[in-house]
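Researcher: Let's try something more involved. This one mixes different molecule types, so please make sure each is placed in the same coordinate frame as the others.
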Amino acid sequence: MDPIAPMLEAVLQEVREDTSGAVADYIPQLAAAPPDRLAFAVVGPRGHVFSVGDDEVAFTIQSVSKPFVLALALERLGRDAVFARVGVEPSGEPFNAISLEAGTGRPANPMVNAGAIATSGLAAEGSAAERSSTLRDTLSRFAGRSLSIDEEVYLGESETGHRNRALAHLLRSHGIIDGDVTTVVETYFRQCSILVTVRDLSVMAATLAFGGVNPVTGERVVREAVARDVVSVMASCGMYDYSGEWMLRVGMPAKSGVSGDLMAIAPSQFGVATFSPRLDRHGNSVRGIRVLERLSEEFGMHVFEPHESIAEPGIRIERTDGGVIVHLGGELAFSGAARVVGVLRDLTGADSESDVLVDASALARAHPAALSVLRAQLETEGGRLHFTQ
Ligand code: GLU
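Model: All components are placed in one shared frame. Result:
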């Protein structure tokens, strides 16, 4: 039997009894969400989705769309152009605060509404319908399936979204967004109304966790540098004004939304998503936070936990008639390269006759700086060290 699902189920059972918090009620469509719904999904590097609870239930993505729209803007315009118009500092204020940098009007970061509206304005071109379809296509590629929009929620957002409209007009007055304000803000409302399941969100999170490659479809959705930038912003700003404490307790870059969804990332390991509609005073899902706290503690997913394998790459020494072969495996980072050099020095020093071949062909990943260290060592050793990659 698959050992993972029962472990996830056990975490879900632990938090199920907690009925604290309240469902978002600023629009009737969200207020009507059955509050007891609870779901949890995890995707690892092989792209297998493990999910438990109400994992087939669709809900609107809301603010969890923000990192993906940021990714699209970064892919399209590059880092400098995007961050000239929106900052990357945690605001410490509620998600819908009217806090723009004095003078420039630059929103604090792309995860609060002001910054997200600015980012939506940068992510696509054309009419609201064209922009919305570009955004939906991108989010669909992150999810690995075609996503749709909940038109009722969109209408609810649009009818009640006066504060977001006010923010958009302020952004327009500062030149942070260009063109027609209504086009930008309606695009933002539509992006919040995209329907996903917890399984979709876990795959979307995993695509960011694996450097922009969707582990289910194998498609590269965004560049590695873009995924890294997005995950960095999530790490400091993803959980509204709870982001600092979240990093301390859970230690996974994350993003939450008012429908009760939450996604988190263990870089190079997992994409995780939860859904439970009751929210705490910061607007984060109460049981979602508890699930992620358990996951971080029990499964060792805090990003600042030590990862020895990075400093200790796999090294296997094979002695053949033609000389010594040093097989490298796993990940070779700068710190690990120093260890390999130590091993090579011992080998060449102890046995001055035979040639040494460094076989790097089985490395899962090698940082360019680590390879430079190895090449430099080859040069110092003259013709006796060889290298295959
Ligand atoms: N549609 C919501 C708004 O912009 C999204 C907020 C959220 O999920 O934080 O007000």
